Amino acid sequence: MNLHSHKLHAPIDGRPLYVHRQRVAYVDTDAAQVVHHSTYLRYFEVARIEFMRNNGFDYAAWVKRESLGLPVAENWVKYRSPARFDEVLEIDTWVAHGSRAYLRFEYHVRRDGALLTEGYTISPCTTLEGAVRRVPIELLKACLGATFDEGSL
Q1: pLDDT recorded at residue 10
Q2: Proportion of the chain above pLDDT 90, given as a percent
Q3: For the residues 87-112, what does the mean pLDDT come to?
Q4: CA 35 to the chain's CA centroid
Q5: Kindly report the CA angle at 19 between 16 and 24, in degrees rounded to 5?
Q6: Catalytic center residues
Q7: Is the backbone of residue 23 left (phi > 0), alpha (psi -120 to 50) or beta?
Q8: Residue 1 pLDDT more than 90?
Q9: Closest CA to 82 of 106, 105, 109
C-alpha cells in the first residue's frame, strides 16, 4: 500500500455521518500555532462521542448504567496539511465497520472543505475493568443506521 495515496472514504451506503465543528484553541497548537499531532486524537474522541449522541446513543448514560466502555485499542492518523490556531475545523465521523467484536470509527478533518487529516480508531466493548464484552445491538443500530443487518452478525 502506498501510504501517500491512501485515503479513507466517507460512507455512501446510508450509514450515519456526523460533522462536528471544532475551533482550534491556542492550547491545541505548538510554538508555530500549528495543531499539535496528538491533538487530533482528542478531536477524534470528542467527535466520536458526539456522533453517538447525534444518532440516539447516550454514551455517558450507557457507561454509567452498564459499566461498559469503548476504549481505543488502535488508532491511525494521516496528516496531509496543517490546521492552525483559531481555524474552524469540521470532523466528519462515521463507523466503517461494526460487529459484535469492535467498532471502527473513521474521521476526516476538513477546513473549508479541504481534507487536512484523516484517521481511524478501533474500539472493542469492555467492562470498566477491561474484560472484553460483545458490542451491544443497540449501539450497532445507532452506529450503522440503515446498513445494520442483525442477520449478518
Answers
A1: 85
A2: 85
A3: 97
A4: 18
A5: 155
A6: 30
A7: beta
A8: no
A9: 109
Within a 10 A sphere around the Cβ of 60, how many other Cβ atoms?
10
Nearest CA among 67, 70, 63, 72 for reference residue 42: 72
Closest CA to 81 of 112, 104, 50, 105: 112
What percent of the chain shows pLDDT beyond 70? 95
pLDDT of 123 higher than 80: yes
Query: Which neighbouring-strand residues pair with 122?
Result: 74, 104
Residue 152: pLDDT band (50, 70, 90) is confident
Q: Is residue 123 within 8 Å of 44, Cβ to Cβ?
A: no
Domain boundaries, the chain: 18-146
pLDDT band at 73 (very low <50, low <70, confident <90, very high): very high
Q: Give the whole-angstrom CA distance, residue 99 versus residue 105.
A: 12
Query: Residues near 1 by Cβ (< 8 Å), separated by ≥ 6?
Result: none
**Bridge partners of 119?**
77, 107
Cα gap 145→129, rounded to integer Å: 29
Assess if CATH 3.40.50.720 describes domain 18-146.
Answer: no
Q: State residue 42 phi and psi, 5-degree precision.
A: -70, -40
